[in-house]
Amino acid sequence: MNLMSVRGISLVPETQLDVLDVERAKVVEAAKLLNIQKEVGFTFEEIEGETIKQLIDQEGCDRVKKLDWEQRNGDQ
Questions:
Q1: Residues of the chain with pLDDT under 50
Q2: What's this model's pTM, rounded to 2 decimal places?
C-alpha cells in the first residue's frame, strides 16, 4: 500500500488523499461560482451549503454531457 507521510509518519493511503483533494477542489470551485452568481444578482432560497452541493452535482452532470458530446463530435 502506498502511504503518504508528514514528517516521516504515515497517515492514510495516497488514494484517499487524492480523493479528499478532489472533493475539496470541487467545494472551492462551487463556492467561487456561488459568489459570482450572488455578485451578478442571483438569489437562492436554500441554505448556502445545500446550494454548493447542488452546484457540484450540476457540474458533474455537465462534465458527463460534455465528454459524451466530444466523443460523438470529436474534440473541437
A1: 1-6
A2: 0.57
